[in-house]
Known about the structure:
Elements: H1 9-30, E1 41-45, H2 47-58, E2 65-69, E3 76-78, H3 80-119, H4 128-144, H5 148-160, H6 165-180, H7 190-193, H8 202-215, E4 216-218, H9 234-245, H10 253-260, E5 270-275, E6 294-297, H11 306-309, H12 329-343
Amino acid sequence: MENLKYLSSKQALFDLAVFRQWYQESLNLKRNRTGAENAWFVFGVSYSGALSAWFRLKFPHLTCGSLASSAVVLAVYNYTDYDKQVGESAGPECKAVLQEITELVDRSLETNKKELKKQFGAAELDIDGDFFYFLADAAVVAFQYGHPDALCTPLVDAKKAGMDLVAAYAKYVKEYFVGTFGVSVETYNQKHLKNTAVNEGSSDRLWWFQVCTEVAYFQVAPSNDTVRSSKIDTKYHLDLCKNVFGEGIYPEVDVTNIYYGGTNIAGSKIIFTNGSQDPWRHASKQTSSPGMPSYIITCHNCGHGIDMRECPQSVSSIEDNAQSCSIPDAVNKVRHKMTEHIDL
């Protein structure tokens, strides 16, 4: 905790500013010139997309422009729009199946907890809230990263065939979410989040620290028509923050939004882009304003950072496979517009 006080967006921006100055000076030394300034353009996706926009806002003298792709510039305490977007992106048929699975899991947990967790390969998640969060996130990635068919096709088929829906979802979770997508179950384990050793899993703890202090984005279940379990509520998140980081840790979302401006950010020469199916887009700037164009890229698999991250896939693959690339015109159009703005 003593070291984590340095983990903040503000500190990250200052680190970038100092690095940028140092690197510019080292270039000038190398080329035997004095006081020269290269043009610096900043890029970022997701949290780094927010940093990209905030860097241009706070250090306009150090950069000529910014691309803020799926940039979560608005800190949100109870982020119910996240789950609502998952339902919208899923479409009526898939959404209904996901809601049925949530109901079945909620009921089954009361009678058969140990076996149920084992079925999903998540026996290590002692805290029920962690288990529910793990299951909710498993569905989310399909829409967030532009692979809705990988989730919806097998589940809707299972429903039509009268198969066991919990078993069908467990298969998807183990094979796709953990297997193909590569998510580790321990990411959701609060015991793991309390581990202060520095290793490749440390980023889980670090991101949660920023969640618990600066931005929240508590992905709570909406009061009605929810896709995720209603047990994923504000209390679950606040309990996690307290359990992992101790007393007195609380997300100061108002402070964050006052400091940066949220979606009323008053920067210039910042390009905002978002994918239509991405649950994070509601924390981004979705409308254009003078000097800050904003584009929503609309397609069946337009997820998080779609303009920067990969070629949209028309099949269930997380690899960037040129043969299965559907490249909707919408993505290409925005990429051309981005290039035009950067050229300007």
